[in-house]
Amino acid sequence: MGHGSESVTLTSAPALHLSGTARIGSDTIFSGLDLVLRGGEWTCLLGASGVGKSTVLRLFAGLGQHITLDGCCRASDGALAGRVALMAQDDLLLPWLSVHDNVLTGARLRGERPDHTRADVVLARVGLSGHADKHPADLSGGQRQRVALARTLMEDRPIVLLDEPFSALDALTRAQMQELTAEALQGRTVLLVTHDPGEAARLGQTILIMTPTGAHPVAAPPGAIPRAIDAPEVLQAQAALLTQLRTST
């Protein structure tokens, strides 16, 4: 794929560090946070609503213009700007564009020449070759999220932020998207914000629960991701995470 997804390797995906206190106006969003994401691995961040998980994502994504951070937000090998892709819970597809053209949105917004051949390759990778000319309204929820994943892969960034991208899908489609995304983003530094302990148990190489007092590590199950849904270690980790989430609120 040329400079496609395979070009991002473990050595080029940096570790990330965010620490300090974040405020919006006079409101403190979190304080005393010390969050480290290992390079080339998946970190899953869970926590109650309002604890600041979305603020963490915005800061890493460079979207924190209205957030005051007394601390640091950086990659281990330099700046974050231009190195981050974001996949949100809403697919954010443009309804008047075809699937193929939605995948090319980033290049067009930057005024770059769209790489139509690479878009075809990426769509094939997510199983949508036969849907390239369709519009979002003609797709299922799972297919729309596959388009969103393809668009993320087209950005070819070493750092990928996932903001609950599978939460609106049915259980079977969600499991399939977890597996596809884990394979497609292998070797990148990935931060997944999720409310689903089962998802974190399947995908987390590092699992953190965010509370008002910081981000607390939880032991991840053994084995490569995506782990089997019904593996005993995964089910045990899911139950343990749910218990800890209940006690942390």
In words, what does this structure look like?
- The chain has 249 residues and is of the alpha/beta class.
- It has a domain at 5-83 and 157-248: P-loop containing nucleotide triphosphate hydrolases (Rossmann fold).
- It has helices at residues 53-61, 99-103, 105-109, 116-125, 141-155, 171-184, 197-203, 232-248; strands at residues 16-24, 27-37, 42-47, 68-75, 84-87, 159-163, 189-193, 206-211, 214-218.
- Strand 6 (159-163), helix 6 and strand 7 (189-193) form a beta-alpha-beta unit.
- Helix content is 33%, strand content 24%.
- The strands form two sheets. It has a six-stranded mixed β-sheet with strand order 5-6-7-3-8-9, with helices on both faces. Strands 2-1-4 form a three-stranded antiparallel β-sheet, covered by helices on one side.
- The chain is globular, with a radius of gyration of 18 Å.
- Helix 4 crosses helix 5 (141-155) and helix 7 (197-203) packs across helix 8.
- The protein contains eight helices and nine strands.
